[in-house]
Amino acid sequence: MTTNTGTGPKEALTGELRDQLTHAMQRVPELARRRLEFTALSGGITNRNFLVESPGMRDRYVIRMAGNDTHLLGISREVEHAATVAAAGVGVGPEVVAFVRPEGYLVTRFIVGGPVSDEAVHRPETIRRVANSIRRFHDGPPIPGLFMPFRLVEAYRALAMARGVAIPPEYARSMDVARRIEMAMLASPVELRPCHNDLLNANFIDDGERIRIVDWEYAGLGDPFFDLGNFSVNHDLSPDEDAVLLEAYEGAVRPGRIARLLLMRIVSDFREAMWAVLQQGISTLDVDFVAYAGKHFDRLLGNASAPVFQRALRDAAEG
What we know:
Blueprint: H1 15-25, E1 37-40, E2 47-53, E3 61-66, H2 77-89, E4 96-100, E5 105-109, E6 114-115, H3 124-138, H4 149-162, H5 170-187, E7 193-195, E8 204-206, E9 211-213, E10 220-222, H6 224-234, H7 239-250, H8 255-282, H9 289-304, H10 307-318
Antiparallel strand pairs: 1-2, 2-3, 3-5, 4-5, 6-8, 7-10, 8-9
Helix pairs in contact: 3-7, 4-8, 5-8, 5-9, 5-10, 6-8, 8-9, 8-10
């Protein structure tokens, strides 16, 4: 899912939107009764983010506003708030300044740092730093909410059908693949951990010391290997790069664990494809969600037809 990084097309601030933001920020003690300036950061699909500054004030903030009907995508702003607080506590996420209720606006301190480029994300040192940040969060305190990708794709299908969206024929084949993966995972279960579940380099900020992670809206307790597989497939990591990732994360590369990572690459694509199918029924943005879904269906079915898939099922089941 695309997110905010502060680059790309920016949303124009209307007077009504500016008044809405100003009113919300009056409930933030650090910013109440100040003259505020808002700058739209590059738009995501499920949220809007704005940089908040005030003349004479050194600190800068980001306010995050939810898009329409994002709860249908399995997003809970209360869980996002809790996950962001937990991530900040382990030095990975941005510091949470306020959570404005009932609107569910999240206000965080602006992180000073630079983006992690598509090229940089393939460097072994970057992969190791990303693994370190992921592991810090996974090893942190529990958060509310569950992330269950095998059930989530079923929920997306039901919600899409209820809104008149035609379910692609690839869904049935993908579900057959997902059931086989789920059985292998259940044969050798792992402990649920707090997970981000949307690890794109657009969600990474390099502050010079650590890779910081933002956009915790899909966070929840889940299989930590979904995070690893999600990061891997989102950036087309090679088998050698997957080995670097797993060694940095666990200290070793074991067949059962690399198999679980490979299978979760496929599950990640299934979630992404069905997310795009549901978006066809709820989004008002000019995005070709049909093509987006097709791209992820094609990749997951291609990976599931590769010889390594059968071996991964066996190795994952054996743990």
